[in-house]
Amino acid sequence: MANEQTGTLTLMSQHGCFGGNVNIYSHPSEQCQCNMTFAVYIPPQAITQTVPVLYYLAGLTCTEQNFITKAGAQRYAAQHGLMLVAPDTSPRGDDVPDEEGWDFGSGAGFYVDATEAPWASNYRMYSYITEELPALIQTHFSVSDKQGIFGHSMGGHGALVCGLRNPAKYQSISALAPIANPMQCAWGQKALGKYLGADQTSWAAYDASELVKQHAQSDRHILIDQGLADPFLEQQQLKPEAFKAACEAVGQPLTLRMQTGYDHGYYFISTFMEDHIKHHAEVLCG
């Protein structure tokens, strides 16, 4: 079924997995003005019924492949009847602006809608994730109206931002080693400054530690896991303590688990994947 056209989607590959299928699709994106790629795990339950959708946003330098091949999430998604959707982390292509370096541009869309040239025409990952991609999933797959969102590192930042700003769309949120206060770290300052410009008042719309002050929800519990051996924690890129303090100040329920011996990579992610899938399934599959 590789390269099969399905409306606006092109099926690039398909693999059986835990009674369901891992499919990779590409499609022309209106938001990003280029072809975008995403992975879907279709659980066996979707053959006979609609199922909830759980979106996973990956981190810097990643594509749609990292999560779907390394996280070990399909086993748990099949158990609970959750569809997994893992998009790419940025627009890509010969006509898409880029620059040297791994923490900005290609593979580093930061899940924002850029406003500055030359990025504004393509780097609209926030609207792609919250509007265009869910509309495609609703149109082409057997899904219910229940959605959750989670992610890792830059993707953890994206999940917190998308989830906090859109409580009606995402009933559950979690993150693994998220960039939780990007206005106060080097990665975030570089990305937000280049994508959004020098006026930092616009940056707060993409900073979870600022957003939670206005978008706290007492009935939606957020789960975060952070490895204590994570080098980026020591480098002050992640700042989970800032997000925890902001949650405590406004009464946002949060479980922040600091995990001894774990670093920033997919060995860490796969270790706690079952807990995160269960966290979402308790809300979405109840």
Automatic annotation (TrEMBL):
It catalyses: S-formylglutathione + H2O = formate + glutathione + H(+). Its EC number is 3.1.2.12. InterPro entries: AB_hydrolase_fold, Esterase-like, S-formylglutathione_hydrol. It comes from the Bacteria. GO terms for molecular function: carboxylic ester hydrolase activity; S-formylglutathione hydrolase activity. The keyword Zinc-finger does not apply. The keyword Transport does not apply. SUPFAM superfamilies: alpha/beta-Hydrolases. Keywords: Hydrolase, Serine esterase. One of its GO terms (cellular component) is cytosol. The active site is at S153 (charge relay system), D230 (charge relay system), H264 (charge relay system). GO terms for biological process: formaldehyde catabolic process. Serine hydrolase involved in the detoxification of formaldehyde. Belongs to the esterase D family. This is S-formylglutathione hydrolase. It comes from Adonisia turfae CCMR0082. The lineage of its organism: Bacteria, Bacillati, Cyanobacteriota, Adonisia, Adonisia turfae.
